[in-house]
Automatic annotation (TrEMBL):
This is Uncharacterized protein. It comes from the Bacteria. The chain crosses the membrane at residues 21-44, 50-70. The keyword Membrane applies. Keywords: Membrane, Transmembrane, Transmembrane helix.
Amino acid sequence: MTDHHRLITRSGIFAVRIIKISFYSIAVIYILAIFGLIAEARILKAPAPLVVELFLIILGLTIGVFANTLEKIMKGVSE
């Protein structure tokens, strides 16, 4: 694959890398915060905060993996 019209640039690849790092960081922060939330959910007997926390972890990981895949494709095309 080649990029004849020069649509994929270094700044675009850098932006995707920043998105990837940001969403992986969000997922890691929520993974670390889940332990305190589990204790609080037991005290309050409320499962909703735990469900939201798990949703945000999965969302962060999913977007991070997508951005990682997109970054690899863009690097392959630009080379």
